[in-house]
Amino acid sequence: MKIIRYPAADAWAEIVKRPTIDTSRLNETVTSVLADIRQRGDTAVKEYEEKFDHVSLESLAVTPEEIEAACDIVPQVLKDAIVLAYNNIKTFHESQRFEGQEVETTSGVTCRQKSVAIERVGLYIPGGTAPLFSTVLMLATPAKIAGCKDIVLCTPPDRHGAVNPAILVAARTAGVSRIFKIGGVQAIGAMAYGTETVPKVYKIFGPGNQYVMAAKQQVSIHDAAIDMPAGPSEVCVIADQSADKAFIAADLLSQAEHGIDSQVLLITTSEDILTGVQTEIEAQLALLPRKEIASEALKNSTLVLVKDVDEALALSNAYAPEHLIIQTENYNEMAERVTNAGSVFLGKYACESAGDYASGTNHTLPTHGYATAYSGVNLDSYCRKITFQHITKEGVRNIGPAVEIMAAAENLDAHRNAMTIRLKSIE
Questions:
Q1: Which of 21, 60, 66, 184 is deepest in the core (most CB within 10 A)?
Q2: Quick one: residue 359, left, alpha or beta (phi over 0 = left, psi -120 to 50 = alpha)?
Q3: What do you get for the CA distance between the two ends of the chain, in Å?
Q4: How far is residue 294 CA from its own chain's centroid?
Q5: Radius of gyration over alpha carbons of the chain, in Å?
Q6: Nearest CA among 343, 304, 339, 337 for reference residue 323
Q7: How deeply is 10 buried, as exposed, middle or buried, from its count of CB atoms within 10 A (0-12, 13-18, 19+)?
């Protein structure tokens, strides 16, 4: 990891820079696959499953029998953990329900807003070396609470055509409607366009590799909304002299093991913490099964020593991290001054892993600096807000002349006339 001590403000841009990847050739591949799926549907999907996931599938749909078998396979201790996490996620997201109010903006004009669920949503759940069954809970639980009628899930099968059983258990627990054995770009295309088997959805959620992210971006232009743009996962830790070095090292490594393009950042006011965390990272890294992945990620990462917590917070807000851990004595005060972050973890015992699994907050978060403009997935992600207005004769009298004047100033005479004929009708 790079170590930077007391950087000048003009060096911050380099500190907050993310790893860059040339996606030009990747995008060409994605465009080609998506076009093929749009044209040939299930046939193309099955061919790409054979090509990319190395499995020949007769049927893309997961059967009820497969789900039942998964429930028998998954150890009870894991099923209990899934239910505990589900209940906490459900509790937190139920608290986000929207209650609109009718407002009289002026006498005779009333306006209100209603939250309406997106009828059909698609969830993408990666498989591979880390089958993210926790993400099923994070995405399906708020969809169900919001009232989405159809929750479609795609996830890659193994070479025997089976889906990870924990993913199936989580899907059943959270209320997923339909599950399909499709991975990668072909899954995004199937949900965006619809095939003979997979229904077209209106919005697609979920993480994935660079190909999946590129596919989501491409289909979002014309065919389906997406949760948010995303890049590799990341964490920033702000620490003062009171922080626990072993805890910090563990948090940095838990993020680094996600992938070789992940990034971790420590901002500390203490030289002792900086050097101590570096030593702890080396000791803990040696014991990790995914140490090669974590080691590569650490090459993208930085330890920064700053003069005080004010500077630490300013640098963190400039970075806009996906995950922010604040291990300082005054963490509650610091929390109030956070302006850019996906999810914030307060105090030495709030590890990022808690949010990833079971505290109740959502772990699908903006990365790559998008926390400056995007929220993490929440109940509103699955809803649309529809506005309503009612205008009486008195309301027409009150706002009609202003409407006429403004429409005329914009040279939109038909707009003006729509109000003028109403004004005349009540004279």
A1: 184
A2: alpha
A3: 77
A4: 22
A5: 25
A6: 343
A7: exposed
pLDDT of residue 22 exceeding 80:
no
**CB neighbour class for 275 (10 Å; exposed up to 12, middle 13-18, buried from 19):** middle
| 25: pLDDT strictly greater than 90 | no
Longest dimension (CA), the chain: 84
User: Mean pLDDT across the chain, nearest whole number?
Assistant: 96
Core vs surface per residue 343-352: b (16+ CB within 10 A) or e: bbbbebebbb
User: Which pLDDT score is estimated for 231?
Assistant: 83
347-379 pLDDT per residue, tens: 999 999 999 999 999 999 999 999 999 999 999
Measured between alpha carbons, how far is 154 from 180 in angstroms, rounded to an integer? 5
- Annotate 208-241 with DSSP letters as a single string: --HHHHHHHHHHTTTT-EES----S-EEEEEE-T
Residue 312 has pLDDT above 90, yes or no: yes
Q: Across-strand partners of 123? A: 153, 205
Give yes or no: 323 in active site. yes
* Residue-wise pLDDT tens digits, 384-425: 999 999 999 999 999 999 999 999 999 999 999 999 999 999
Contacts of 311 (CB under 8 A, 6+ apart): none
The one catalytic residue in 49, 234, 257, 323 is: 323
Nearest to 274 by CA among 320, 313, 237: 237
Instruction: Write out the H or E segment, with its range, that includes residue 408.
Output: helix 393-409
CA–CA dist 311, 317 (Å, integer): 10
Of 234, 257, 280, 322, the catalytic one is 322
Residue 350's closest CA among 327, 330, 334? 327
> 144 CB contacts (<8 Å, ≥6 apart)?
151, 174, 175
Over residues 207-211, mean pLDDT: 91
- Contacts (Cβ under 8 Å, ≥6 apart) of 106: 395, 398, 399
* Average pLDDT rounded to a whole number, residues 129-150: 95
Residue 255 has pLDDT above 90, yes or no: yes
